[in-house]
């Protein structure tokens, strides 16, 4: 009997889950639309790449520690969790509104890939902290042992450009030492622990650092590093993701390697915001793969 090349199914646990499978590469991806549209598991070529703290995932009010949270309309933090726009002050939680919102599923496919497309639109809650009408469409697609995250950002406003800087916060499982080598052409990084710019020589020991560090000047939109079980993780992404943030927590077996469109606090500085014109859309992609 022939085994289907791709599979998509939904099932109910603590939340409704969507499972994408590719038996030929022993790959599986789990998506939870209700919990911020997050990918909670990314098993590629038989190796689970993501770390997940299950308790934070199952607690509906907790920030999920693990998987790949979606960051929109900001990455990182704002001073006092607030910003001003057009003379008015707004409150914005860390990493924005997308990761704490329920997304809806608008389509699935097992034709040529295993995929699920989810959508988030602005509502009364998001407008309180981000006064712009928007629509996000993300397609998670599993194909050839890689996870593609195809993103569409839309400004539904009839007038006025929408400021934002999106990103991702993937938690990658690792074995042992957090002083790992990252293959990147970045030459310097900002250490948020002392706010000093330092030369990047290929590795940063995250184990004793409380705050993150940010690779400042990569020219190539790609990075790779050793993950769990001997895998080498590869990430490629569109050039609009200009920065890569590295972060971890002491004694936890993960490193976060996070592509961001701008640095933390940008909605306060307003120097390199993405400004999406009224009625406009921006498309981007993030691909995660691995080599054994």
UniProtKB/TrEMBL annotation:
GO molecular function: carbohydrate binding; isomerase activity
UniProt record, GO biological process: carbohydrate metabolic process
InterPro entries registered for this protein in UniProt: Aldose_1/G6P_1-epimerase, Gal_mutarotase_sf_dom, GH-type_carb-bd
Domain of life, source organism: Bacteria
Coiled coil: none
Listed name of the protein: Aldose epimerase
Organism: Paenibacillus arenilitoris
